[in-house]
Amino acid sequence: MKYQDSLEQASEKAAQVKVFLQRAGLAAHPVNYAVCYDYISGHHAGLCTAIEHKLSAKTPFDDFIMADLYSRYLTPANPQQEQLLQDASGIVSRLTGYTDLAAEQVADYLQQLDFSLLQLQQQQNGENILSIVEQLRQQTLEFRTGQYQLQQQLEQANQQSHQLRHELEQLKLQRQLDPLTGLYNRSAMQQQLELWFTEQPGRRVAAIAIDLDHFSRFNQDYGSAIGDVILSKVARKISSYVQSSGLPVRAGGEEFLILLPDVDLRSASEIAEQVRRGVEKLRFVSARSKKALPKVTISLGVSLYQHSENWYQFLARTTDVLTLAKQRGRNQVASETMLALPA
Predict the structure, then answer these.
(1) Other CB atoms closer than 10 Å to residue 71's CB: what's the count?
(2) Least crowded by CB within 10 Å, which of 189, 194, 229, 326?
(3) DSSP string covering 131-170, please?
């Protein structure tokens, strides 16, 4: 285990995790389990504080919140990111040193220049004047040499900073993408939502929550390796229906989310139905046995952002609509307008 618990300790904590998940109505998939186990272990003060705050506020837990907690507090440090930060720190330190050196060189030269000019004004002897001029010429040459060397160092640092900026942009992109599916992750989703609402507070945003039907059973029957391939291909199909203005997201496990700005509920429902049909048409064959795998279907829930709620509430409500689609038989689209209707 992460904290090197004894078998007895691990069993006791596992029982507490089970109780927590049952009370919260959460599935025991790896992300939810890891967050609960870490919370019960009490080794991460930030995570414990965040969960205690939500418990005291009686905030309902769902997979979206748990994935957000996992991303914020339990995602392991990235060695590549640490190296880039060290490189950035080194470049900044060198640039600071070059700036200080340049300022020092300029100050020394100007001081010497003032002193030489004062001497010239006080001298009447031609030989002494020539000597002072020669000293000034030599100092000027040294100053130019120093400035040239400094310029070379600055150009090198500038090239390094451009390269570093490119690597940081690539790292930023990687941190926004789910490594398995290539879709955006929850962190990118939150940033994009905040950006949309900052740009236009009254903006209309539709959400389509998607869940693969009976996928846990599929994993049990065929293994997680094949399951990952299925997830990846389904994600690619989902993404193909999202235009550049929209955001396809892997929300966690076999759950996906499509965010559509400036789209009404009816149009979002039509897009959801296109996605459902597109995934239903996919066919999969086992690379090992060459046998056809069972057809994969999805359930979808569509909702529209209400400005009286925060985005956590928005996504939770979208999940409720998705649950309705499952309750009504799966492999179908449910809209928030159905929530008040009888099943």
Answers:
(1) 16
(2) 194
(3) HHHHHHHHHHHHHHHHHHHHHHHHHHHHHHHHHHHHHHHH
Distance CA 33, CA 46 (A): 17
Strand partners, 292: 285
- For residue 309, what is the DSSP state? S
DSSP 194: H
- Cβ atoms of 27 and 61 within 8 Å: the answer is no
**Radius of gyration of the CA atoms of the chain, in A:** 31
The four Cα atoms 151, 152, 158, 163 give a dihedral, to 10 degrees, of 180
Give residue-wise pLDDT tens across range 156-208: 766 766 676 666 666 666 678 888 898 998 888 888 888 888 888 888 999 99
Q: Are 258 and 184 in contact (CB under 8 A)?
A: no
Nearest CA-CA partner of 196 in 311, 38, 117, 78 = 311
Q: Up-side HSE of residue 101: CA atoms within 13 Å toward CB?
A: 15
191: its two tokens: 């940033």
Are residues 300 and 276 in contact, defined by beta-carbon separation less than 8 angstroms? yes
| Closest alpha carbon to 315 in 258, 273, 270, 271 | 258
- Antiparallel, parallel or unpaired: β 247-252 and 255-261: antiparallel
Contact 322, 304 (CB under 8 A): no
Between CA 303 and CA 284 the distance in angstroms is 31
Report the catalytic residues: 254
**Model-level pTM?**
0.58
**Tens digits of residue pLDDT in 103-154:** 777 777 777 777 777 777 676 666 677 777 777 778 787 877 877 777 777 7
Q: Which residue reads 């529209």 in tokens?
A: 304
Q: How confident is the model at residue 5 (pLDDT cuts 50, 70, 90)?
A: low
Question: What whole-number distance in Å separates Cα of residue 230 and Cα of residue 212?
Answer: 10
pLDDT tens-digit series, residues 255-271: 999 999 999 999 999 99
| Cross-strand partners of 335 | 302
